[in-house]
Amino acid sequence: MTVGLFIPCYVDQFYPQVAIATLELLEKLGQTVVFPKGQTCCGQPMANSGFAHLTQPLNERFVDQFGTVDYVVCPSGSCTLHLKEHLHSQTSESTATAIRQHVYELTEFITDVLKVESIPARFPYRVGMHQSCHGQRGLHLSQMSELNAPMYSKPGRLLSQVKDIDIVTLDRPDECCGFGGTFCVLEEAVSAKMGKDRVADHLRHGADYITGVDMSCLMHMEGILRRQGSKTKVVHIAEILNQGVAS
């Protein structure tokens, strides 16, 4: 099967190493990956700000770029959720529907489609895992702590397969970091305070790295860490899972 790799615009511009790690990881897991060069933003920032009606040209371009692949895989829970819920086409709705049904966040794809049980990666550090809101509450990548239900975490399951990793236990494992896309611009003070609280939880438990499935959340926390002069770094889960994986 052919996997179309969708890279969010902010990853493309600021964190290209995450895109490269995602590509390498998928290929090492036996997938044929294509990267449509005409891809652009999925339109999530506009839609989240109340301008969904302006995203239609982006929808049409996305359908044109990814309409022939078997799966679309994206290293971002928020962009994936946006596509699952809002991708429509005025020229080929059947293709848009097929894409919505076959677009996956990276860890979701590895867990649910490829059903990988072992990843021979190594990352000998203390790592705090951030459960991003879109991934957890929209894509159901992990269980919400307020529910009286069995706990699970697809990203956590994959991280547990990494050799020598020390995953720290947080006080509030699924608290929002406060980024929220355009929320961090419109409600800067609230967003920054939420981010500082989220970062503090990781630092209290001695995390060397903070990881997650959304580089947007990690970018928000990275800015806070840098302003605090902290030695703790952020790393996308794709970069961890790609460490030491033999091709």
From TrEMBL:
- Tell me what this protein is called: L-lactate dehydrogenase complex protein LldE
Tell me which stretches of the chain form a coiled coil: none
To which species is this protein native? Spirosoma utsteinense
Instruction: Extract the Pfam families matched here.
Output: CCG
- Every Cysteine-rich domain range: 3-84, 127-221
